[in-house]
Amino acid sequence: MGLPLHEIACLVDGRLCGATDLEITGAATIATARSGEITLADSTKLAPQLLRSQAAAVIVPEGFEPAGIPFITVSDVHEAFAKVVRHFRPQMQHRHIGVSHAANISLSARIAPDVEVDPGANIGDHVEIGAGCVIHSGVCILDGCRIGEGVTIFPNAVLYENTLVGNRVIIHAGAVIGAYGFGYSLAGDRHKLGAQLGYVEIEDDVEVGACTAIDRGTYGPTLIGQGTKIDNHVQIAHNCRIGKHNLICAHVGIAGSATTGDYVVIAGQVGIRDHTHIGERAALGAQCGVMNDIAAGQRVLGSPAIEEKEEYRILAAMFKLPDMRKKLIDLERKLAALTGSEVQHSKDAA
Amino acid sequence: MGLPLHEIACLVDGRLCGATDLEITGAATIATARSGEITLADSTKLAPQLLRSQAAAVIVPEGFEPAGIPFITVSDVHEAFAKVVRHFRPQMQHRHIGVSHAANISLSARIAPDVEVDPGANIGDHVEIGAGCVIHSGVCILDGCRIGEGVTIFPNAVLYENTLVGNRVIIHAGAVIGAYGFGYSLAGDRHKLGAQLGYVEIEDDVEVGACTAIDRGTYGPTLIGQGTKIDNHVQIAHNCRIGKHNLICAHVGIAGSATTGDYVVIAGQVGIRDHTHIGERAALGAQCGVMNDIAAGQRVLGSPAIEEKEEYRILAAMFKLPDMRKKLIDLERKLAALTGSEVQHSKDAA
Amino acid sequence: MGLPLHEIACLVDGRLCGATDLEITGAATIATARSGEITLADSTKLAPQLLRSQAAAVIVPEGFEPAGIPFITVSDVHEAFAKVVRHFRPQMQHRHIGVSHAANISLSARIAPDVEVDPGANIGDHVEIGAGCVIHSGVCILDGCRIGEGVTIFPNAVLYENTLVGNRVIIHAGAVIGAYGFGYSLAGDRHKLGAQLGYVEIEDDVEVGACTAIDRGTYGPTLIGQGTKIDNHVQIAHNCRIGKHNLICAHVGIAGSATTGDYVVIAGQVGIRDHTHIGERAALGAQCGVMNDIAAGQRVLGSPAIEEKEEYRILAAMFKLPDMRKKLIDLERKLAALTGSEVQHSKDAA
Question: Is the ipTM here above 0.85?
Answer without folding.
Answer: yes
